[in-house]
Amino acid sequence: MNPADVSSVVRDYVRSVSLGESTGHDWWHVVRVTGLAATIREAEGGDPLRVELTALLHDVFDEKFYDGDAGTALSGLVDQLGIRAVFPDEVWDGIIFDILHLGFAGGFDQMPLSPEGQIVQDADRLDAIGAIGIARAFAYGGAKGRELYNPEEGIVPVATAAEYRTGSRHTVNHFYEKLLLLQDRMNTKTARRIAERRHRFMEEFLAEFFAEWEGA
Ligand code: ADP
Ligand code: NI
Predict the structure, then answer these.
(1) Residue 53: its pLDDT value, please?
(2) Would the pLDDT of 106 be above 70?
(3) Which domain holds residue 17?
(4) Residues 6 or more apart from 53 whose CB is under 8 A from it?
(5) What kind and span of H or E run contains 191?
(6) Beta carbon of 104 within 6 Å of any ligand 1 atom
(7) Which atom of ligand 1 is nearest to 102's Cα?
(8) Could you please report the per-residue DSSP string of 62-131?
(9) 145-184: per-residue pLDDT in tens?
(10) Left if phi > 0, otherwise alpha if psi is -120 to 50, otherwise beta: which for 195?
């Protein structure tokens, strides 16, 4: 299979399993992350096919909705799709390692990713901030039945990775435990530049949100 065929096989598969997903890992998230990753790669370098496949596959077996061993599942999927020959084994191992470790996890256990993995991590994080990030956070909170905000609870910092994973607070808290931290956690200069505007927009949103909350 040539690289263009590999990418369309993976694209079709991921689209078929993620269309209509409602926890923020839907197909359009994958499309946005794949596009952002390609933009970052053009400026920063890296293997284009590796970046694209990492982005397309990065949420297919996310722990939020897949209970089994995601590494085994990904390796099985590579065989099922008939695309193993496109990279040597150690590259596939690297791609799977990157996918398993590019999540935020409260920022507590950042793992050493390949340059391509770092680009996809940046793209995934860019899609969690700005206007889209705000929309995703409230969609996620809604899907979990959470309050928009609760002033009695206030803003509670999260101290450990375990606490981050089981987090169950109002959605505004998520801005302080994750979204507002991401700008400073970008791996690449290109992503940091894109993040600035998105970060500012979230700050403006929050200022307006709290002002309206107080009846402004
Ligand atoms: P990613 O695709 O970046 O790995 P996650 O799996 O952490 O993202 O979450 C998917 C989306 O849901 C992201 O936009 C994220 O910010 C949002 N999200 C995750 N946890 C929460 C939460 N506790 N409250 C609100 N939004 C959340
Ligand atoms: Ni993602």
Answers:
(1) 98
(2) no
(3) 3-213
(4) 6, 7, 10, 95
(5) helix 189-213
(6) yes
(7) 4
(8) -TTT--S-HHHHHHHHHHHTT-GGGS-HHHHHHHHHHHHH-S-GGGS------HHHHHHHHHHHHTTSHH
(9) 999 999 999 998 887 777 777 777 899 999 999 999 999 9
(10) alpha
Q: Write the CATH number for 28.
A: 1.10.3210.50
For residue 100, give every residue at least 6 positions away whose Cβ sits within 8 Å of its Cβ, in sequence order, or none: 70, 71
Atom of ligand 1 nearest to the CA of 146: 24
- Ligand 1 and 24: CB distance under 6 A: yes
Q: What is the pTM of this model?
A: 0.94
Rounded to two decimals, the ipTM of the complex is 0.95
CA-nearest of 13, 114, 111 to 57 is 13
Task: Name the residue of 30, 32, 136 to mutate for ligand 1: max ligand atoms within 8 A of Cβ.
Answer: 136
Across 18-24, average pLDDT: 72
Q: How many independent structural domains does the chain possess? A: 1
Quick one: pLDDT band at residue 190, thresholds 50, 70, 90?
Answer: very high
CB 55 near ligand 1, within 6 Å: no
Task: Please give the average per-residue pLDDT across 63-73, as a whole number.
Answer: 88
